[in-house]
Amino acid sequence: MTRVKGGVISLKRRRNVLKQVKGYRFGRSNKEREAREAIAHAGAHAFAHRRDKKNDYRRLFTTRINAALRPLGLSYSKFIGMLKKENITLDRKILSQIAAERPEIFAKVVETARG
Prior knowledge:
One of its GO terms (molecular function) is structural constituent of ribosome. Keywords: Ribonucleoprotein, Ribosomal protein, RNA-binding, rRNA-binding. It comes from Candidatus Yonathbacteria bacterium RIFOXYD1_FULL_52_36. The protein is mostly helical and 115 residues long. It has helices at residues 7-20, 32-69, 76-85, 92-101, 103-114. Helix content is 73%, strand content 0%. The protein is rod-shaped, with a radius of gyration of 26 Å. The mean pLDDT is 95.
């Protein structure tokens, strides 16, 4: 079998790896071995932090709803209980948007939940 030199493919692979780490600091941006390591770690963190972002937003929604409920004389947990009892199926994201952008409509939702 004839010998195949892998120069072109190796260069292509190296170029693609270094393109992915453009903007990284120190040797991670121009040394292939460090760049591969950086890509692996970045991928792991990106996966975990996509999950964390969902939790962060849910926490933000809860805080916004609670802040809008306090002047109306309610707490977040009691309000969510009322919604479930009345079978109102608005999710927390929508409720927080209504609370922030349209307080008068949010007040009507609260009155409906009170029954």
